[in-house]
Amino acid sequence: MSRQLRVLVLVHEDLVPPENIEGLSDKEIAPYKTEYDVVVTLQELEHEVMPLGVGSDLGLLRQAIEQFKPHITFNLLEEFHGVAVYDQHVVSYLELMKRRYTGCNPRGLMLAHDKALAKKILAYHRIPVPDFAVLPMGRKVRIPRRLEYPLLVKSLTEEGSVGIAQASHVEDENQLRERAEFIHRQLQTDALAEQYIPGRELYVGITGNQRLEVFPIWELIFENLPEDAFFIATAKVKWDQNYQKKLGVKTHEAKDLDPSIAQQIIKLSKRAYRALNITGYARVDLRLTPEGGIYLLEANPNPQLAYGEDFAESAEAGGLSYEALLQRILNLGMSYRAEWQD
Description:
Number of helices: 12
Strand content: 15-25%
CATH architecture of the largest domain: 2-Layer Sandwich
Radius of gyration: 20 Å
CATH topology of the largest domain: D-amino Acid Aminotransferase, Chain A, domain 1
Number of strands: 13
CATH superfamily of the largest domain: ATP-grasp fold, B domain
Order of helices and strands: EHHEHEHHHEEEHEEEEHHEHEEHH
CATH class of the largest domain: Alpha Beta
Number of domains: 3
Shape: globular
Largest sheet: 6 strands, antiparallel
């Protein structure tokens, strides 16, 4: 039996889950499903749980810490002030308050969030990544001559496939300029143009601080992808349930992988996790080309943690139930040594 803890569950102010979801449809539950699953499961593990919604006021967090006196904060926050990369600063605040938390440390979040910086670090460590260029917001879009088409254009910092659509796949300068300007205008972030890698899309779930555990390799499948469509994990693929059904979107353990290829994928994923200073848990996204080439697309600290989603499913395939997964994440947060503890 694990030690009972007071757990402050930190969520976005619009995603504080209700105590009961009876009678609600899957569509109604979807926005806060992760938050609900985590809160309820932690309660079932007999921890004392307090959800806290935060949007742009850290005073609420300080007040909750002083009054509830949590042993640890379970961090499910993905933005602050509406800015995706500001979640790292909330974690920094927890460290300044000398509080324990789950998931990735501020440095790992900062490095992984900046996709260009992450690719530079991974390339330095000889981890294969797609060739890329950053197209900054507020400047005229300059077309990099060294990049070969087709390219995939996306936000430099947004997560969860935000801003990614079939139109993100570009084949000439005009399409590239148009999509980069769309990213600048709609998402208010710099754009990233990277080499489009055809092949199988694979995910590797990892937990750990120093000693890492890797879950079975997972794969994204489209059973009904139209012939004129590109194999891209767009925002609609990730979040639109009707669209998922239409395309036959499924994820499951990768089959028919050559053992030596699988070993390389796991090794590269662990190297990337360490190179980017990630702690707690993460999902590494890769592409495997028809010729057997492996490209690491990105590493995602604190990935989607809902029951039944890729990360939890791959953990279960590796012998770790959802309850055991959340308890492990708690244990890793309790054992992580931040600078204030040295």
